[in-house]
């Protein structure tokens, strides 16, 4: 009886995602709104489930804060996230890297400050006293951390401009376009999203500042899964572009493919995050 009780306590201490090995939970950070994310990634989730031969549940968060809460609570077996989330998940929550996106014909991404072409702003220093809307909030890598890094390099300190947050990068871009704010913090690739191009004339926007090109958005898997299962997930995702069904699922998610990556590739993000947030990864 004592042995059974100890076993029960150990089992109950595991997160739901880990305790039930018959199903997996796939968490995606809210780069886009919830409905669009569901439409884009449902085919990929179904493909992964079919290839694994087990249920995979797509878990969508309405905002960055909710995604972070679920991640820290151990709700996810597999994540597609930004680079800050990955660094934290690797250090604190036992995740390992699978690969990164290739999208819009690129394998890299950059942080940026976006303004209207008719704004009259010629440099970041012109944003002193102005309102900048950061897409996703303080844990958004391109939309906040890298964008803020650009502002600091230009000599603008906290308090030199009005800092506001949008629920996602798309909303930050839209608010800038409609002149509700002066500038947006966002990834450069977000201007190429179909949803953005269908809603506004992106030719009326421009990059006031752009960071160096950096590694794309990562995919990571929990080390609490067995090594065999982790390897299986890795192989399925990395080779999706080699089958008709895989390519169809990638296309539905607006992805070209998922490419192999190494943790050391994320060292530039470690330095930027240390500078802006004071965190060591």
Automatic annotation (TrEMBL):
SUPFAM superfamilies: Periplasmic binding protein-like II
Pfam families in UniProt: Phosphonate-bd
Residues of the signal peptide: 1-19
Record keywords, A-Z: Signal
Protein name: ABC-type phosphate/phosphonate transport system, periplasmic component
Species lineage: Bacteria, Pseudomonadati, Thermodesulfobacteriota, Desulfobulbia, Desulfobulbales
